[in-house]
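Q: Given only this backbone (200 positions), what sequence would you predict?
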């Protein structure tokens, strides 16, 4: 689960850098990048790995959570005082929000690409600009990315811990990096939404 999660953590900056091309007034760079992603054979392999990572991570996350609930159906009296508890307690809910967003995202883009939903897969730029002109879409998008930030903060350093990379000196550094990552990545996605919604 940690490896699948780390893979997803690496994928997000790649996705974000492509999304920044949406800020250009010329649709071509973004559409070209999307076309390349859809057709280049190596990326197709990458896509399979990505889908597997999502599937493994989600199935494992839900299974772990159900096991936790079954192991302790009644919470600790007085609540848990563990340092990790605040964000870790909400991982399943922030994860469920990301999953709901992914379903919406698949309907808006991926299902068009594979021909399940009608639309022009060669012009994702116009589809994205169309979505970012809808107020309710932007509000949902921004809420999801705030919750993604919470998931990412705990996810980043917890994955290192799971892999046994817990260290007296390095763990506080990893936690600081987690904070930078968890703020910067969602803020990057959110800035694109805000610019296209309010300033274009
Ligand atoms: C952008 C998408 C996502 C990324 C980058 C991501 C990343 C991660 C990482 C790295 C961890 C730490 C794993 C560990 O401590 O070993 C984690 C934990 C977790 N994730 Fe995700 N995740 C994503 C989406 C989801 C989704 C869609 C779910 C669906 C339910 C989910 C559920 C969970 C849960 C429940 C945990 C906590 C597991 C535990 O108790 O340690 N995640 N996530």
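A: Predicted residues:
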């Amino acid at each position: 689960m940690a490896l699948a999660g780390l893979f997803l953590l690496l994928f997000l900056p790649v996705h974000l850098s492509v999304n920044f091309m949406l800020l250009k007034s010329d649709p071509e760079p973004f559409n070209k990048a999307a076309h390349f992603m859809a057709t280049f054979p190596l990326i197709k392999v990458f896509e399979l790995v990505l889908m597997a990572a999502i599937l493994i991570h989600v199935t494992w996350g839900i299974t772990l959570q159900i096991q936790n609930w079954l192991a302790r159906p009644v919470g600790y009296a007085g609540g848990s005082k563990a340092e990790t508890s605040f964000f870790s307690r909400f991982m399943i809910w922030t994860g469920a929000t990301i999953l709901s967003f992914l379903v919406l995202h698949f309907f808006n883009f991926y299902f068009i690409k594979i021909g399940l939903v009608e639309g022009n897969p060669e012009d994702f730029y116009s589809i994205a600009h169309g979505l970012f002109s809808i107020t309710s879409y932007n509000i949902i998008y921004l809420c999801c990315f705030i919750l993604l930030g919470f998931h990412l903060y705990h996810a980043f350093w917890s994955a290192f811990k799971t892999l046994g990379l817990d260290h007296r000196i390095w763990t506080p550094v990893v936690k600081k990096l987690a904070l930078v990552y968890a703020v910067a990545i969602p803020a990057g996605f959110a800035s694109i939404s805000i610019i296209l919604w309010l300033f274009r």
